[in-house]
Amino acid sequence: MASDHYFSSEPSSAERPRRITVTLAGRSVELNTAGGTFSPDHLDTGTAVLLSHTPPPPPGGDFLDLGCGWGAIALTLALLSPHARIWAVDVNQRSLDLTRRNAAELGLDNVIAVTPDEVPDDVTFRTIWSNPPIRVGKNELHGLLQRWIPRLDERSDGWLVVARNLGADSLQRWLAAEFPTGYSVHRAATSKGFRVLRVRRHGATPTDTIVLP
Question: How many domains does the chain have?
Fold first, then answer.
């Protein structure tokens, strides 16, 4: 069991399907969860903090839920922005199956639950919301963020929730150092032992603009 984590691609633990009731986007919904996924018994505190301390997403465009689990963030984004396309990304096939089932039951046809490599390379994101898998380790986490943060559209925001005692402040410093040009990073909220970090990709600066004769 020690090697079977919610970030395993094919969890070996018993599935033990269950139904839970949660409130997403102000709506009480009953959803499918299962063992071998992240927080199968309830909406975890970190995700709840993210959902309650992040401003409404844009009305449309491509959005990313990075590490979707059974879909709490992706479903919320889909409910709030029905004209957007929500990419719910996870390596855990059980999580992806649950997200697809939950989206179908709620009538949300704008949720696409896929593995990271199944997201087309030309897709960029109007927003990224994530409760990232901190326990994969620092190197893996940094690689994950190095892959996806640069795919933010210009003048768009990424929102990450991280527990303070699991390195939120050091991650904030790393993000600021890793993305020093064209981005800004700051702590947007603190609640219940969690930090919500905002990563903003700015538009082109005057020095980036080519003026044609």
Answer: 1
Provide the domain limits for residue 178.
Answer: 18-203
C-alpha 79/C-alpha 24 separation (Å) is 8
On whether residue 13 sits in a domain, the answer given is: no
Backbone angles phi, psi at 27, to 5 degrees: -125, 130
Q: State whether the Cα torsion 160-43-49-103 is positive or negative.
A: positive
In this structure, is residue 144 part of a structural domain?
yes
CB 195 within 8 A of CB 172: yes
Assign residue 25 the CATH number of its domain.
Answer: 3.40.50.150
Residues 162 and 147: their CA atoms lie apart, in Å, by 18
Half-sphere exposure of 46 (CA within 13 A, CB side): 23
Asked, for residue 211, whether it belongs to a domain, the answer is no
CA dihedral over 174, 178, 181, 185, signed as positive or negative: negative
User: What's the rounded mean pLDDT across residues 141-162?
Assistant: 97
Mean predicted confidence (pLDDT) in 93-108: 98
Banded model confidence at residue 137, pLDDT cuts 50, 70, 90: confident
For residue 128, pLDDT beyond 80: yes
In a domain? residue 210: no
Q: Look up tokens 């898998």; give the residue.
A: 133
135 pLDDT tier (thresholds 50, 70, 90):
confident
